[in-house]
């Protein structure tokens, strides 16, 4: 007789599904507030895209003011203390970049969860969601290592990125960009070592056209900026990419090459892979995207060796364990933040986080990027975390209810971390009061977030904690 799958049943106050930027701070916040909390992660590491070495965006606004505090800043402070980040750096293109160590991100994430009392379930995939006849989520079922586990909880938080909990619960949703359903492309991040940036920068001195951002908003984005700014992102090599494509040696749908500084000066994160025309919420398309991504990684290594002075002997250090996914499902919330409502009093009065990044839309069908500067941060209203038609659930990270243009700014990791802290705090308040997330007092929520260091509209503070002002 064949042995059956094992079955477990556990109960918590708060269950957070997804351990990336949209889930990790939520679990920490809920547990710190006294709720028994479990964090379910489908991979073997917490941190999401930050665990790939991708620099974190969104900490500083365009004027250099700090826009994120609370757990998001605490996470960076703890990385700084162990050489896992050099802090925040201003950037003419991205407003700011916060380089991180991919492996120390994983360690600090676990440390903070353990200290807060969060129980972690690694390598567990969501299988199902149980919604009762009052449209309230009562349990989710996850699977890991021949075992199905039913998790009962009073409040659930969807930090999956793709909104898998909300999708299975029946929350109304759309796909991709409003009007076209085209999704921003995914990327397979990887880090490299054994390069000489000084030689590469000398090459750029002699070939200034290979500094790729020439728009007026990018004034000051030049080779001197790269030299003096420890945490920077290089975008360029437009001509060499075009020449390699003409020679049949560059098949990636990208018109430029991108590297990003990490916490180590011996490692760079490469953000040039591009998987277009895939729906990463579909497992078959996701798998094909990964397959293509691996071929792109090797193609990029060959490109660097042949076209980038100082990179002739470059080597792969690490390939991310999962695709970096920019966009899939968008969910309908009690409130939908749109470009028309970014700076209204109603939005600011109910804001539980700030978004300080620019509108950054990577073409899902072509090779370019459409970037529009956001001059001042905007608030994320609490209603954008509350899903329509379903109770007992909070949306977090990039699952929140916004239009696809606002999403292009709010989707970055730093903003997702601030949203997640608010979601975790709201969940704990609902548990404390015996109510639902939709009954949480947003005034009290905002006050509590501010007391724990969160930065909300009207409370901007000068950049600190590692920020470098040019």
Characterise this structure.
With 470 residues, the protein is α+β, with helices and mostly antiparallel strands. The protein is 29% helix and 22% strand. The protein folds into two domains: 6-180 and 328-462, FAD/NAD(P)-binding domain, CATH 3.50.50.60; 190-319, no CATH class. It has helices at residues 24-32, 70-81, 102-116, 164-169, 197-206, 223-228, 238-246, 283-307, 345-349, 404-410, 413-433, 442-451; strands at 6-17, 37-40, 65-66, 89-91, 95-97, 119-121, 125-131, 137-144, 147-158, 173-175, 190-193, 233-236, 257-261, 268-270, 315-319, 329-331, 351-355, 359-362, 369-372, 378-381, 393-395, 461-462. Strands 1, 2, 6, 7, 8, 9 and 21 form a seven-stranded mixed beta sheet that branches. Helix 1 packs parallel to helix 3 (102-116). It is globular and about 65 Å long. The relative contact order is 0.20. It holds the Pfam family FAD_oxidored. It comes from Brachybacterium sacelli.
What descriptive keywords fit this protein?
FAD/NAD(P)-binding domain; disordered C terminus; iron; alpha+beta; globular; five-stranded antiparallel β-sheet; seven-stranded mixed β-sheet
